[in-house]
Each structure stands twice: as C-alpha cells, then as structure tokens.
Amino acid sequence: MSVHLPTDLPGCVLRPWRAADKEDLIREANNRKVWRNMTHTFPHPYTERDADHWLEIAANPGASIQLAIAMDGRAVGGIGVIAGDGIFAATAQFGYWLGEPHWGRGIASAAAAALAGRIGRERLFARLEAQVFDWNPASMRVLEKAGFAREAVLRSAATKDGCLIDTVLYARVFAEAGPVGD
C-alpha cells in the first residue's frame, strides 16, 4: 500500500507516523474525551513514553496498517487496521481517532473513507470491522459515510470509564463468502 494517501478533504492526507510527530501526538492524544472513545490499549494520561512506544509500533506494523491523519502537514490523529491472523486473516479491525479541536470538520470521515476505499480497491482484506461504544453516534456516522454497515449491537460487551456499555459492530465487506483460491 502506498505510504501517502490523499483524502477528498483539501490539506488532509494519511501518511506514516514519524518521530517529528511526537509533540503533536502527545498534544492531540492526551485528552480524556479522546481516551473515552478508545480501546484499553490507548492510555490516559498520554505521556511522552506512550508516544515513544506508539511511534515504535507504528514504524513496524507488520501486516497491519498504522497511519497518521495529517492536516496541513501536522498530525491531528491516527487511523489504521489491525490485521487478523489464523482463520481470521481476511478480517482486519478498523479504527481511528482525532484530536478534539479537529472534531466536526469532516476530517475523520475523509480519512476513514480514504483508507477503507484503498483497502477495498487493493483487496488487502476481505472484511473490515469496527466496534463503537453506544455513546458515540458521531463515530457511527463516520463509519456509515465510509461505507460500513451496522451489523449488531453487542449488549454489555465492554467496560469503559467505570461503565458497562453496549458496543455497535460495523463492517465493510469487500469479498463475499465462498471458496478461496484455486
């Protein structure tokens, strides 16, 4: 996959994370409102050590994809997929986050559509999945704009911020079930 991916939003591109993004990463990620909508692997507070750890992971993603969302050259969030393995190798977990000052400007929607579209065109995975906490309808709209379909509500599936909550499973499918290969 190409390392620089344009979006349909002027000034917004998806690109590899780089060491120079460290200050932007800490500034944008160290926000309780951002953390509240992320999985348990996204820390809060977000420290310099966390940024160093993430930049190391992003530099060596293996079959996964980890990109910075850059707006006018500055990292304002992240997007990527975590590749499945074994019998789930055709499926990847899709996720993204955006610093709070950039919410509501179409950046997440443009980024999600660009990455999901590229994955589909290049057939990197047959299926993308994303789980969203039920208290985050804005993220549900982002996924729907990127061609994802709501598949299920997983009742009492996650614990976050001291609450047992439902998650909503979204998926975008690029290949129909059936025989694989010759």
TrEMBL record:
<dbReference type="InterPro" id="IPR000182">
    <property type="entry name" value="GNAT_dom"/>
</dbReference>
<dbReference type="GO" id="GO:0016747">
    <property type="term" value="F:acyltransferase activity, transferring groups other than amino-acyl groups"/>
</dbReference>
<protein>
    <submittedName>
        <fullName>GNAT family N-acetyltransferase</fullName>
    </submittedName>
</protein>
<dbReference type="InterPro" id="IPR016181">
    <property type="entry name" value="Acyl_CoA_acyltransferase"/>
</dbReference>
<feature type="domain" description="N-acetyltransferase">
    <location>
        <begin position="24"/>
        <end position="176"/>
    </location>
</feature>
<dbReference type="Pfam" id="PF13302">
    <property type="entry name" value="Acetyltransf_3"/>
</dbReference>
